[in-house]
Write a structure and sequence with these properties.
alpha+beta; about 15% strand
Length: about 170
Amino acid sequence: MARIRGAAAPGLAVWLGLAFVVILLDQLTKTLILGDFRLGDSRTVTSFFDVVRAHNTGAAFSFLAGASGWQRWFFAGLGTVASIFIVWMLRTHPAQRLFCFAISMILGGAIGNVIDRLLHGYVVDFLQFHWSFLAPMFPGGYFPAFNVADSAITLGAICLIVDELRRVRRS
């Protein structure tokens, strides 16, 4: 373990373990949705949140969802290449805790969605929020459905931005 400010920095196993927890939670929740919902089913949880079953053959916001099928392998390959790069980054920057946390979350989310693409040919989405203030951007105010992997990727991206802002402020 690398030493940082008097404390040992978590090793690669910790960061890979975190990514593995994200993958497990993602796949468990998707398995529950696949078992209890049919495509298009929706259950209202609150006035602004529904659990749904949606399939996304594209990327974020269904980008390329209407393509002829090549995008399945493109996004699976892209996720695999990104995962290899992230593991390399985790190995080379072990003392940067927020950075490693961020890319571990992205790694877990990327692998979770790659698993879906390889198993099903699409990503299973099930969390859907809706507010009237979103109506100018999204039909009926419904934000596109997403999943645990997408949430982990988003959290990781936010943490990367915060990490970079902290790094710039320090220098």
